Structures are given as structure tokens and as C-alpha cells.
Amino acid sequence: MKKILSLIFLSLLTLALVACGGKKEEATKEGGETKQEARVIKVTTKFVDDEQTAKSLVKVVDAINQRSNGTLELQLFTSGTLPIGKDGMEQVANGSDWILVDGVNFLGDYVPDYNAVTGPMLYQTFEEYLRMVKTPLVQDLNAQALEKGIKVLSLDWLFGFRNIEAKKPIRTPEDMKGLKLRVPTSQLYTFTIEAMGGNPVAMPYPDTYAALQQGVIDGLEGSILSFYGTKQYENVKEYSLTRHLLGVSAVCISKKCWDSLTDEQRTIIQEEFDKGALDNLTETQKLEDEYAQKLKENGVTFHEVDAEAFNKAVAPVYDKFPKWTPGIYDKIMENLTQIREDIKNGK
Length: 347
What we know:
Elements: H1 2-28, E1 39-45, H2 52-67, E2 72-77, H3 85-93, E3 98-103, H4 113-117, H5 126-132, H6 136-147, E4 150-166, E5 180-183, H7 187-196, E6 199-202, H8 208-213, E7 219-222, H9 224-229, E8 238-254, H10 255-260, H11 263-297, E9 301-304, H12 307-314, H13 328-344
Parallel strand pairs: 1-2, 1-3, 5-6, 5-7, 8-9
Antiparallel strand pairs: 3-8, 4-7, 4-8
Helix pairs in contact: 2-11
Keywords: Signal
Protein name: DctP family TRAP transporter solute receptor
Organism: Fusobacterium nucleatum CTI-6
């Protein structure tokens, strides 16, 4: 009996070794090494699937996953389904395998001067801003962010100038009085809307539609693309062209995650987010006119505003941030003056 049991045991052991050897051969027959498990990195954003930024992000994520040959698996979460904004940036700063695509203002919680660079009424065109983020001034801010655990991959994800979408037309700061307007959870936006004459109500963007329906707020501020893409026009029909802030997202990855990647993986991620920013910009510029026409067809009325009055109204905002580096506004304006001169001269 013992002999029989021993034979059975040896037979099973042989089968097990053969099976293991088969698996090993299958895993190593092409490259001689076992297949590396994909590194999962979450990518979170507030943008909904119908918005251009989300569409461009889909392309970026697909390209990275394909180019990495299975070593990376970026997972995109739109519409704020996973932490975004302040909570999302905390995930990045704390070292999670995380990429956040959200407002530059959330970088301002870690490096306050970012808010100065994206302050109210600064830029007249997209090109001015895109040149600004390439200056040594902004590159130094990116270095400071890195010291806080945040690797800035891009500051180029533009989605248009932000305007006021409300239940009544806005032409002057006087028209803003008493209006409850949704803003991101950011001091920059809060102070800007207050200076313009409104009552800011901070809330996550995905909550805005219901808040408008329920009368919790009277309107919001945002770009034409966001206004159309999230169907806010179903609740408010007056779009006032204040152009008070430029809508732009930063792409940030945790430094800990970034440092743990191979050179090849880092190159792939950087290249594809750069391509994505250009794709997003190109499509955004195409869509602004198209969406403006569609909004008009849905009963939305566009209004020009007294730009000079709003410029004067927001000027005190730059004095409300004691954490900003003294003289930062003057440095920004020096760079901006040079940028405008270069553009004028075709440089």
C-alpha cells in the first residue's frame, strides 16, 4: 500500500513539474524573461466624456498603453468619479500612482505663485499664455512643485476663456450683485468673483447642473466648451463674455510614481501628454465657434461686457494673496509685455 501511494505521489509531482515547466516556457519563449505586470496609474479629471479635454485624454491614455507594450496601464476616470481638484492633487502630492488633469489653481495650494500666473484679466489670447508657461519664471514654479512631490507634465491643456453663465445678462459689475455663482474650490476664483460683484459658491463641477435646477445657485462661470458639453444651457440662457480667467488644466503626476518609472516609460508619457495638449487646443479652437452657434440655436443669448469696468474691479485681487512672492505680478507683466512685443514682431 505504501509503495502504491509513493508511486501516485511521484506521478503527481512529475505532472506538476511538467505543468510548471510548460508555463515557464510559454512566458519565456519570446524574450527569455517572464512577462512584466503592467503598472496601473489612475488618471482623473472633472471633464465629462462629451467634453473635448476628455476626448483628447482618451487618445493619450490609449497611445501610452499601446506604446508601453503592456508595461503601463493608465486608467482614465472622467466626470469626477475619482478624486479631482484639491483631493486629487493630494493623491499626487502624497505619492499615489496618480495623474490629475485639473485647474492650475490647485497647484497654487502648493506653490502659490501659480495662481498669480493664471490670475484674472491677464491674457488676451491663447498664444500669450502658451508662451508664458515656457518662460524661466514658470519653469522655476515647476521646480518648486517638484520639491512638493508634484511633477508637472503640462500646463498647456486649454479649454477657453471663462465667462459668466447666468439667469440674467451681465454687462457691468453692478449686474453681478446678489448673483450666487458656482466656482471651483479655489481662493483665486472666489476672490475674483467677489471682486466682480458676485457671491461665489464653491462646489465640485459635477454638482453644478443639479444646483442650477434646484435654485441653489443662479449661474456659474466657465468656458463655452464646458457650458455646451455639460448642457448647462438647459438651465441658464444668458452667456456674458467677461473673459475674466483663462480656462486651463495642469497635468500632474506624483513625483514618487514618476521617479519609479523607466526612462522609456517617462518619455512615452511626456510625449503623449504633449501631443494631447496640442490635439486638445486644435479641437478647442475649432469647436468654440461651432458650440457658440449651437448654444444660440438652443436659445442662449451672448452679451459683451464693459471690459474696462471689470478690469478695474478685479485689480485688488492681486493684493489678496500674502503668500505670493513680492513683485510676482510685476515679473509676470514684464514677461507678458515682452511676449506681446515678440508676437507683434513675428518672433
